[in-house]
Give the backbone structure.
Amino acid sequence: MSDVLNGEPLDLLFRKARTHNIWHDKPVEESLLQQVYELARMGPTSANMGPMRIVFVKSPEAKERLKPALDPGNVDKTMKAPVTAIIGMDVHFYEKLPKLFPHADAKAWFKDLPANVLEYIALRNSSLQGAYFMLAARALGLDCGPMSGFNNAKVDEAFFAGTSIKSNFLCNLGYGDASKLYPRSPRLSFEEACKLV
Ligand SMILES: Cc1cc2nc3c(=O)[nH]c(=O)nc-3n(C[C@H](O)[C@H](O)[C@H](O)COP(=O)(O)O)c2cc1C
């Protein structure tokens, strides 16, 4: 087995992968979402805390619940996407640490931290997991449309009321219509973005 990816897999994950806004009318099965999560959960997080929690919004009823929280520019594409993942984060992630980091009392490291610090830690790690999730989705043939243009408080009220979970970002999922893409925007070069010291 080769231990590097070449050519097409790299195109699929990065070079030809795009953020999609227009979706083919092709459903996304729950079994595929499960496979995406099974891969994404393997990516690293601090103390293996894995704070990401996901609600997959698929039914028309749930989409209607999400709609009032969306910025106007995100409504149409989200309503038409086969599935919208709410990438959330459990700010009381430390409750799961006895299971997830069993070789040390990691819960004690976090449980008394101020709420803003817990949220900062959860945001960092759930954002990483959200990125793993998008790469896993691409690896399994799905297209993604991530969005931060929404009202977090409204999403939290509609989907996470009474829990310690807060929304991080949204990600439409499905099979994108590549013929409707805008030209790819530039990225910073290595010289612009990186320094070797
Ligand atoms: C965290 C995040 C939030 C984003 N929020 C929005 C959004 O609210 N609405 C939107 O149309 N696009 C949004 N985008 C899409 C970006 O503009 C897009 O991913 C970027 O321009 C790269 O496009 P490309 O993947 O096609 O190269 C978001 C992307 C990310 C990763």
